[in-house]
Amino acid sequence: MNLDVDDLKPQHFQKISDMVYRSAGINLKQGKEALVRARLMKRLRSLKIGRVEEYLDFLDSGQGGREIARLVDVMTTNQTSFFREMDHFSFLRDTVLPGLTQARLRFWSAACSSGEEPYTLAIMLREHLADVDRRDVRILATDISQRMLEKARRAQYPQAALEEVPAPQYRKYFTALRSGPPGSVQVAAEARELVRPAYLNLMEPWPMRGRFQVVFCRNVMIYFDRPTQQELIHRFWDVLEEGGYLFVGHSEGLSAIKHRFRYVRPAVYRK
What we know:
Layout: H1 10-24, H2 33-47, H3 52-60, H4 65-75, H5 86-96, E1 104-110, H6 116-128, E2 136-143, H7 146-154, E3 156-157, H8 167-173, E4 174-176, E5 185-187, H9 189-192, E6 195-199, E7 212-217, H10 226-239, E8 240-248, E9 262-265, E10 268-270
Parallel strand pairs: 1-2, 1-7, 2-6, 7-8
Antiparallel strand pairs: 3-5, 4-5, 8-10, 9-10
């Protein structure tokens, strides 16, 4: 069967953009046509659909509900690695963790992708949080992509994701796999047991009841428009306890957004 994504007309691009925006808040701006065309090919090939017009008709049909979630999945960018933006983890180690004396501690890695960020957090807690095993400590790791969450649950990674892991932590928290691609490793159980991967669309109601001491939502808001960013920041305020910390990506400062957080340092804010 011939696949024809070259027939992605402006009205098709706009319709797909609108669907993705309504579902996940992701803003596919003009100029993203090549990206959409390339990623759309994956869904057409999987469904054995030859033309974009047919695919859009399928999305509009009664059977298209689950497919919209899969469309959002292929449109998301999942670039991450262990100890990415290391200065955040240094600040966590030196400033945040020493001040956390509560018996119950909750951390949230929002839009965690394939899990490198929450497992980095887990390693930091194991290394630098006093009495971690005597306290109720959990890291919620959420993402909109079931495909990425499955990778997070497996906690198996290629060497390319581990380039920034310090040697002592590499030896302590990663074990070489006998099967799989050469160089692949498994995250150690003592780090895995702190992490709870779960599906969550940030645009939908959040089911969490307790409050968090720390929220990481990094390199995510760049895909949202300003009103969506504004709403998300307000919601993070609501789920953080007084004095809690919000970490965002270094390209995502809050200077253009109205908020109540106190600026601490680049890409770090405090309630």
